[in-house]
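#structure-requests
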Amino acid sequence: MNNAVAGFSKLTKEEKINWIANEYFANPNEAIATIKQYWNSDAKLQQLHDEFIENTISNFYLPMGIAPNFLINGKYYSVPMVIEESSVVAAAAKSAKFWSTRGGFKATVLNTEKIGQVHFLFKGNHDILEEFFTTVKDTLIASTESITSNMQKRGGGITSLELHNKTAELEHYFQLHATFETKDSMGANFINSCLEQLAKTLKSEAETYPDFDEIEKDITIVMSILSNYVPNCIVRAEVSCKVEELAEKKIENPREFAEKFVQAVRIAEIEPFRAVTHNKGIMNGVDAVILATGNDFRAVEAGVHAYASRIGQYSSLSHAKIDDGIFSFWLEIPLALGTVGGLTSLHPLVKTALEILGKPSAQELMQIVAVTGLAQNFAALRSLTTTGIQEGHMKMHINNILNQYQTTAEERKMIKAHFENNTISHAAVVSFIENIRKP
């Protein structure tokens, strides 16, 4: 690309594609064909997808799979997962089946509080600002009535409003710190609309407050925005059984396995380098369900990792112990999710995923997501402390290698037979393919 493009957003979809193809590809026609190959043949459905974002040129497909046999609070679920990584869905399904015969998963929503803040600057007497806030607090909340009325009918709305003095960290900096209950909606648009109204009312009330001087009346609103850190919107997922009940084909000595498993978790609790990979495994499960159900995985990721650092050092989200012969494994994570609004009512596959889950409430979805994360973590730790992580992963990854080299059905049969009893690696598979293809 040699030149900037002007007015790209005003181009038609075809014009955008042609420009991209001619600007970046040696073979523009091939690029255009690839881009259009992923269009939906249903024009109306394709238009729906086009309008989810701006400057759309195509659809980017990810596999959607099902992990069955999740027994959660006495109820069975088949969990939809959207992810590209080999072995994640298989690992979740294996964990689900393992724990379904050992009492299943227990999940509890501990709190559902969400947070938003109006960040503003105030140059003046802090004590007078406190008095002003006390005076206008009810007016501030009342000013959002037109926004919150429908949410209040469903049992939600603004649950508290506080003034936070942050001047010790940043000169003149204060916050209106609001908490919200948004029921089955994730509530981002609702919260941000409330915050912007609170900011307008704060500024207008300050301009007429008699105890402020002219400088104090001039409050500067910096921004009004929800927080994706929701440390009081927590769900707990857990499993437990007698140590001897952990026995299975690859766990011949359950006591040794349990002790090693607990040690692996404790390492992740104290060692950030291990904790990051440990928690990434949890998020393999969490993100896959969040994507399938049309929620915001970036927001969840940011909030979860902040929560993992709340003690001043990044640490494991999950924990394990052996107590009186009982093995217990659990996690608590912050999850702000919704089952109404946004893509949940627009994307056909999101609606399908929620249907598969039995049209859950937001709290029920929180439980399912947390359990899937715990199941994924259990599967990873079981592999790490027994056969090693690569055995199962490479068995699943081999299909990607075979597709990459466009192997025939007969070649696949020979390759899979060979690697039943041989170590799988990318280099070994490629070498075997090359050998069987030699004339």
